[in-house]
Amino acid sequence: MSKPLIFLIREMKILILALSGTGDALMFTPALSLLKREMPDATIDALVMINSVKEMYEKNRNISKVIYSDFLKEGFFASLKFISSLRNKYNLSINVYPSNRKEYNIINYLIGAKKKAGVIYLRRDNQNLGFLNNIRVPENDTVHNVRTNIKLIEKILNKSFSEEPSLEFPLTEQDESFAKNYFRQINISENDFVVGFHPGCATLKNHIKRRWEPEKFAGLAKLLIEKEKAKVLIFGGPEEDELKENISVQVNSSDVYVVKTNSLTSSAAVMKRCNIFVTNDSSLMHIASALGLKVVAIIGPTNRFYIHPWKTDYSIVSLNLSCSPCFFYSPKPLKCYRDDVLFKCIKEINVEMVYDAVKNMME
Length: 363
Known about the structure:
The protein is α/β, with parallel strands linked by helices. It contains 15 helices and twelve strands.
């Protein structure tokens, strides 16, 4: 294949638009590593609007600079002024997949790069102004998000890749030291069987309906403590503290620990000790994958082909209903249209099903 014109630009400057969730930004890191490998002299910056993405990308070896702005908080005029300050500074800009919102495509357009990359979505592509991008690959409902991002890089570089790198979530010595001290304080040894829980997930656009109920996480913890002598660690962000405490109170055991840290990477360092990680479809599910943990993922309305744990041992617990998956990338809130039980796909997953998945993973 002939080399694309972008290779002929002396001072190649690339902007990654990672404006959606932490998990989405993390699932772009394999494609990012391939891009940097092929273009080692390029300056690759990232534009983000979520603190956890900023924290993660600042430690990524392939990113030169992270540019942060809370567009939702700043409002229209301040955001427009901020975007204008970046205009015409980049040769190539890339909307990471998924980012099926008109605001993201408008921002990508206003950046002013000659080459603007993004995915052709199967749903609401024109409504969300996807045509503003001029390097595009089609979405495929059977393809993982990581692979779609790699396909986007392949289109940019006019080159195919046989390898599919792992997710990159770097930890520092400070993070590792924090985790060692944490386990020393709560008296968990190397011989203990440790199971991590993440009972939360994003709440915007009614995504809270993707959560397995807290009382079921509590029931699972009781089983694991009683039958497997497990130590159970409950993870989540500060906004999920009430949820974590609720589960801990229901279990009422000294073998349950609510993990609270000052940073996402510190939490990840503690997660790394877990023998198995039980989680909803969430950013921590993808971080667990990046850490190489054994993952039991509880999946309701989401397309498992898009988001299953990447390059690690995993088990998905799902009812596999005929109406699933019903959630695809869209700015519309998540809704259920069943006549019998709303969000049956997650509500009727019982404790025994998840416990059996954990047991199989143990074996």
